[in-house]
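Discussion board: Methods & Data

I've been asked by a reviewer to show the raw model output for two of the constructs in my manuscript, not just the figures. I'm not sure how much to include, so I'm pasting the format here to get opinions. Each protein appears as its amino acid sequence followed by a line of discrete structure tokens. Is this the kind of thing reviewers expect to see in a supplement, or should I convert it first? Here is construct A:
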Amino acid sequence: MSKRDYYNVLGVSKGDSVKDIKKAYKKLAMKYHPDKNPGDATAEEKFKEIKEAYEILTDEDKRREYDQFGHAAFDNSRGGFGGQSQYQSGGFEDIFGGAFRQQGQGFGGGFGGFEDIFSQGRGRQPRPQKGQDREFTLTVDFVDAIQGAEKVVELPINGEQKKINVKIPAGIKDGEKIRFSGKGGSGVNGGPAGDLMLVITTRPHAFLKRDGDNLTCTTHVDMISATLGGEAEVHVLDSHFKLKIPAGTQSGRKFKMTSKGVTNRKGVTGDLFVTIQVDTPTNLTEQQKELLTQFKATL
């Protein structure tokens, strides 16, 4: 019975590298090894065939001879490398590190080691994996986000309610996250625990609004102060500022108060923008109405 082409036996091409050949051989050897197919003569013959092909094609000199002369290169009558008994070297052992080392001569002995390598594979510990990160939304007061605060938050972690001490940094913005390393899901196969992340959102303020690091608000001014000029008191959180109102100030005019805004986590402070709303007086007395009428006549 004529021998099959060695390249076809391993399912590789002539141009494939030794690395490709070893990869193909390893796959086939695992499949047809007699220890995995006890009593299967066909598998044993197949194993012999792929081992023979591997030993020829991974040897530079033998592969060159085979590519030039085919199987005849190893015919004793041609004076080549000799028959199969001449090249039953440790090719399989080279790849598998002796795990499939034969205990007898040739293929007549036992094919020991196959069960060992597979049992080791089954017993190998899976790689440690980091636990899942957990993410929750934490809603804080407007003032706490600007000035900073400390809170105790109860969160469901790994099926349990756990209390976490949270330090809210001054100047934190909506959407920013506070990370707690190792407070997330449990690790797998001895891996580290995941992280816990709190996504910050802020409750609206009664009259302040935030735009980045800037604050905006509206201040009411009476008609006389807006007309003749004066001062308005601006309240921002725990601070009070005096704002000079020029004569003739119109409702809707904006004033900028430099560095009176939010100090962010990098230490940069924004500005405060104050919008003026001129209040029209109501419930005037008759005398007041008369005075306004006289004033109107002078315009």
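Construct B, same format:
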Amino acid sequence: MSWVKKYGLSAAAIAISLVVFVVPFIFIIFMAVKDQQQSAQMDFSWPTSFHVVENFVQVIQARDFMLITAYINSTVITVTSVALLVVLSALVGFVLQRRVTWWTPWVDFFILAGLMMPPAVVPTITLMQQLGIFKTIHGLVLIEVAYNMSFSVILFRNFIATIPRELDEAAIIDGARPLSLFFRVILPMLKPVTVTVIVVQTVAIFNDFVNPLYYLPGRENATVQLTLYNFQSQFVTEYNLLFMNILLITIPPLVVFLFFNRQIVAGMSAGAIKG
């Protein structure tokens, strides 16, 4: 009975995780390697024949290599957005933590509002059209940075709170200016939370479907998640190609998450425990 109490919940959690995450992924793999006739049955069965290369080539070549274009667009958007998020969020978190003034509670309010309030799509599109950045890559980059900054600022601020102020004072005594203090003293010490922000935001932005759909319409602006929307209309009865496309855009974020899983947990827990 003691063994059941000790390991029962762990076994149940593992079983639920397998059902929720592993089983659907296996189903995607099976569907992606089947032929068109067998995939139309939409069942969890072993493939009678494997068409990995054939399905892969058809998906890559579909619509004038749209998936390649989508990968390039998603990579540019993700890398640029994450780089801006890390620098800007770390700077904001540093200022909020080190310089507490009368406007700090107001800034905290707007940061929390950014986490809780849903985005206003129509006014945002109108504003982007007036600024001339609607349907542009850099316009979507600004959207991704704005929508994800609140979470990143909170992580950086909590972690910076664990860094002693004496380090700031010693650097200032040695002649360091504010930007030099941040980039040469503080930023190198933010490696755990920086890795956390990079991995979490990379996966989130790369997998984003809603924002590119609203703010970056157009075939030439397709991102990897929008290729699912496009392929579904073309391959409405060719589920093998649709699931091969799903597999190709699922593997990169999955690999990133598996490799950096420990860093994510360490970065998020370090600020919470020490703060």
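Answer (T.O., handling editor elsewhere):
This is acceptable in a supplement if you add a one-line summary per construct. For B, something like: The longest helix spans residues 52-98.
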